[in-house]
Amino acid sequence: MGGQNDTLQGTTVAVDKVSVRYETSSSEAYASGGGLRGRLASALPNRNRITVNALRGVSFAARHGELIGIVGQNGSGKSTLLRMMAGLEAPTTGTILTSSTPILLGVNAALIPDLSGVENVTLGCLAMGMTPDEAEAALPEIVELAGIGRSIYRPMRTYSSGMGARLRFAIAVSARPEILLIDEALSTGDAAFMERSKDRMDQMLKDAGTVFLVSHAAQTIEELCTRAIWIHNGEIVLDGVAKTIARRYRLWAWKVAKHKPEEADRLLKEALEEQVETRVLLTKPWEPRDDNHRQYHRPRHARG
Question: 1-21+53-102+177-304: what fold?
Fold first, then answer.
């Protein structure tokens, strides 16, 4: 499950042996001393430096028409992976190639709080490369998809988190992106919005698009996605059919939540033993490689 040799044929995103390491400060050594001295020392700027491995040798290929869910506990590397694909951060080692510029949609996607929803829609559309006329033409469809009623004319600072997330999603998909990266932005919507969102993503997939969806809710991944990738401590545990992967992850997470570490460790070990290494074959990645003769490139700011 998840093991394969992947070329760029029909592929929108290729991730090859990507690792991300960064240094950060840690107060662990000082705090372990206890007492007031330890607490004061932990606040000093020259505290211990440690290396964090956010991703470890991650490889996979995503193809046209796939809706790929990414599951894993907090700190597993899910959001880091999306930021790498979007070009917002550069991998320490490895290569990422995309067939077009991915659009990253997150809960904290930048909109201007003091402007109304309508004004933010216009700015968002222009920022994604639409002309003023295209942005105006897209407005009714965006307003309908967001489903926030007359609130669209109020300042964004008056919106709930759910309303803001719905408007961000509606703006992002209005650009008809070939590659859409969604980081928890659908988790705050109601059932009606989820249904509208799924319909819109289904249309994207029919148009040969690819969607990545990060969610803490494995059931959402199971219901919406065609494929799922389980990440743990920066490594891929399993990659396969969404329903199967999401259910196995949910069982593992349930054992962790119920403080049954031995059973959780057994499930994780079994999953890791089933994994077969995925090899992504990148040969002359600057040349068109698929049936549509697309040009593959590294996301902005990323390096091989």
Answer: Rossmann fold (3.40.50)
**Neighbouring C-alpha atoms within 13 Å toward the C-beta of 96:** 26
How many C-beta atoms surround the C-beta of residue 12 within 10 A?
Answer: 24
Which stretches of the chain drop beneath a pLDDT of 50? 1-2, 107-108, 286, 288-293, 301-304
Give the per-residue pLDDT at 6: 56
Q: Which of 117, 126, 119, 123 is nearest to 145 (CA)?
A: 117
| Contact (Cβ atoms closer than 8 angstroms) between residue 130 and residue 204 | no
- Look up tokens 């809706």; give the residue: 67
| Nearest alpha carbon to residue 274 among 263, 262, 266, 282 | 266
Sorted by where each begins, the domain ranges of the chain are 1-21+53-102+177-304, 110-176
